[in-house]
Structure formats: structure tokens, C-alpha cells
Specification:
Blueprint lengths: L1 E3 L4 E2 H9 L5 H8 L9 H25 L1
The structure holds FE2/S2 (inorganic) cluster.
FE2/S2 (inorganic) cluster (FES) binds next to loops.
Length: about 70
């Protein structure tokens, strides 16, 4: 699904940017260009950022608990 129509960037590309270390909307824009034009997709990027980073941290804490 496209989240940034200006740059034609999908939610998968945004999640990949977060997985590779992007922690702000600006960093996502730098990684995959989503949000680097009109900014209309920023709320969606922020939501994906929150979802993807909380998924990653809950996986991390599960891994820590299992260790
Ligand atoms: S819709 Fe993403 S920058 Fe315009």
C-alpha cells in the first residue's frame, strides 16, 4: 500500500527504513524519500514509526526474557 503518493513509497519501504534504524520522520525521509515533499503523509509515517518500533522493542523484550 502506498503511504507517500508524492514519492510513490509503500508502507513496506517505510517499515524497512525503520527496521534499518530510522527513528524520526526526517530519518525515514532520508532513508526512503517518503515524506520528503509535501509532508501530507507525515501522520501516517509517524504512526508506522510507532507501530514498527514498538513491535521491534516488544520482540526485543521477549528475546531478553527468554535469554
Ligand atoms: S505524500 Fe508524502 S511527501 Fe507528499
Amino acid at each position: 500500500m502506498y503511504v507517500c503518493s508524492c514519492r510513490g513509497v509503500t508502507d513496506r519501504a517505510v517499515k524497512a527504513a525503520v527496521a534499518s534504524g530510522a527513528r524520526t520522520v526526517e530519518e525515514i525521509a532520508r532513508e526512503c524519500r517518503a515524506g520528503s515533499r509535501c509532508g501530507g503523509c507525515w501522520p501516517v509515517l509517524a504512526e508506522l514509526l510507532e507501530q514498527t518500533s514498538s513491535d521491534a522493542s516488544s520482540r526485543h523484550s521477549e528475546a531478553s526474557a527468554a535469554a
